[in-house]
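Please, structure for the following, as C-alpha cells.
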Amino acid sequence: MEKQSVIFRDLGQMDYQSAWDYQEKLLQENVKIKSDLRSMKLEVDSQQSSVSNGFPTPHSPLATHHYLLFVEHPAVYTLGKSGNKDNVLIGDAEMKQKNIQFFNTNRGGDITFHGPDQVVGYPILDLENFYTDIGRYLRNLEEVIILTMAEYGIKGDRSAGETGVWIDPGVPGRERKICAIGVRCSRWITMHGFAFNVNTDLSYFNYIIPCGITNKQVTSLEKELGRKVDMQEVKEKIKRNFERVFNAELKGNMVM
C-alpha cells in the first residue's frame, strides 16, 4: 500500500483547550472536504448517467489531510465521555489550589492526567485512507509506544480489555501503566490520541483513579530507567515508529 503523507507539527507547550480547539478545527476541515467530495461524486455520477458524449467528466483535486501533533500541556485532568467523575479524588477548590485544570472531553476512556514532560500525541487521520477499524487503530497506537519503549530496553505490553501500554500487565501487584490512549472518530477522522509518561511528575496521579482502574500503578520512562530522558530524543523515536507502524511519511517539523 502506498505510504500516506502526514503533516507533523510540534505545538510545544500549549494549554489543553487551545490544543483541543486546534484539533477540532483540523477535524472539521477534513469533514467538510469529505462532504464536498461526496457531493461532487454525486454530481459526476448524475452527469455520467445523463450525458454519453465521451467528454471527460469533472474531477476534484480535494483530498483530506493527515496530521500528527505533539504537545505538552500544563497540569490538567481530562475525563472521557463515558468516564466517572468519582474517579477524581480531589475537589475543585483543591485542584485550583494545586493549579490543575479539569475538562470533560468527547474522547473515549476515563480520567487521565496531562502535564509537563509527557509526550501527548494527537493524530488527525482519515482512516478511510488507512483502514476502517477503530480497534486496529488503537492497537497500532499502542504498537508505536511499545516499539519506542523497546529502544530503551523496556518491554511494553497490552493488558486484556484495557487500552493503553503497560509494563508487567500479567504480574499481580506489578502492573503499571506508562501510556494512556483515548480517541474520538467522526466520519472516520480521528482526534485525541496518546499520553506517554517520559519524565512526568507521577504525584499528580495520586489524586485520581487513572483510567478508572483501581489497584494498578502508573509509571514513566524516568522511573523505569532511573534517569531523566531527553524529550526530543523520545519524540524522534516516536515519529520514526509512527511512520513504520502506519506506513506513513511525516512531513515538516513545524514548531508553533
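The radius of gyration is 20 Å. The chain is about 30% helix and 30% strand.
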